[in-house]
Amino acid sequence: MSASVQSSVAPIEAPLQVESVEQQRWDQTCDALVVGWGAAGASAAIEAHDQGADVIVADRFLGGGASAKSGGVVYAGGGTVHQQRAGFKDTPEEMFHYLQHEVQGVVSDATLKRFCDTSVDNLRWLEAMGTPYTHSVPPGGKTSYPQNGYYLYYSGNELVPAFKGKLPPPPRGHRTVGKGHGGVVLYSHLQAACVKRGIRTLTQSAVRRLVVDAEGAVVGAELWSLPAGSKAARLHAKWGQRAEKLQNVAPGYCNRLRLKLAALEQQHARPVLVRARKGVILTTGGFVFNKELIRQYAPKYRRNFKIGATGCDGSGLRLGQSVGAGTNHLKNVSAWRFINPPQKWPKGIAVNARGERFCNEEVYGAKLGHAICEEQDGKAWLILDKPLRAQSIRQALLGRYWWFQSVPALVMMLLGAKKGKTPAELARKTGMEPAALEASLRAYNQAITEGREDPQGKSADSCQLLRQGPFYALDISVSSSVLPLGALTLGGLKIDEHNGQVLSEQGQSIPGLYAAGRTAVGIPSNLYVSGLSLADCVFSGRRAGAAAAGTTTANSLQATPEMATA
User: Fold this and answer.
1) pTM for the full predicted model
2) How does the average pLDDT of the chain come out, rounded?
3) Across the chain, which distance is largest between two alpha carbons, in Å?
4) Is 452 exposed, middle or buried (0-12, 13-18, 19+ CB in 10 A)?
5) Cα radius of gyration (the chain)
6) What is the pLDDT of residue 560?
7) Please, what is the end-to-end C-alpha distance for the chain in angstroms?
């Protein structure tokens, strides 16, 4: 390995300016160059191709990225055929009103409404690409991820009383049908759709700089590609796949593999200059694997387990910034603290380091994780009493959960829990304030006994008296070695929400440059719920692909304050 390789992050250089685009020598030419071949990139490439554009899609690795590693859940509603077959009524209006709670204005209401209005069609589009969905709902409907055999579930906060609308809340999490995690199934169909269309691909090819003309318009990109079929390319593929496969169990080893990948690229990659006549679309994902960007924008999440792929190193973000692009919401990170399953766990109470209850335990795991990281300095406990612990152990043993749900839960309850005969004794063992923990339990129990609303707004179905000792405290902090608290980044480049064109800090369009997925600010950029990112990858990817193909003439749509993500 070269001694000069200090980071696995792809290097990004200042843009190459060419005086004459026509006289410049190009290695390849296309209408639209898509940078990043995950769900957003594939959606953009397919849409641009189907709208008549000549497309090249490039990827630093072999494609897939975070999309292929995901659970394959697509947040879709408004009355999908699968919702209807499961007996649920939904409308785009109900979906819009619910998502307003989650989105909190990071995109305009007009864009959010368009996302909801097109949700049924976008799911149909995915199905037309070959991705399968169905309507079986798991018992209770709510889980962090449904076991095999169940593919429609409550993937957000729809069941939380504060989020309910006029209609009974419908499930909108559409998990891609397939064994194991559905992300690889979803992505394989999108990738196959690209190949079937004859879309040209440049894999193991990282974009190091954009190419601009004399007026500053983006007209192409310089890629550094490993020679196809070479020993370096074979090693790169082998180590890259191993790094993704083992990230959850051996992150340190995988970090060393990534350094070796970067060394191969530095030693063996060769430049390829690509002309993009109509536009470059950046879809390389977020930046959770970029330590410097995390330290700069989201330092509270440096200790979190990374959710994503090696390519989530902020390369698209940095490419955009290299030509003056603006950014927003880079401090927004989704931190995942799931406590369902076991389904009984949300009946306990989550308390902070002092013993004070701070959150509704039935909320989606990213909302709980956000509260732990942003408000509680990363420290929290889940409190159970003797009956609730016994019920939870039984569920973990017999509930047919995924191993990554049941095994950590059992280890936590059987080996890792702090135990006290009384709340005061438990508080002393955990460093909490006895009076604070006793007050939290007393307020919770009194509301149940007296038939009053829970102090944190938890529904009655998720409440259970906690008064029979011994009492147990499960560590649900960022530092938990048994239950890692994962995180992914949500912010990105500012875009014109009509067409996905990248904007400067001042809100001016950057000609020839588009962005989609987690490289851009989008629907999930405030607070994440399962499936919202993949759904936005399809929505924003297709939008950018159509614009770059010329279906929506990007230059004719001037960015306006209400449509610019600012």
Assistant:
1) 0.92
2) 94
3) 81
4) exposed
5) 24
6) 34
7) 42
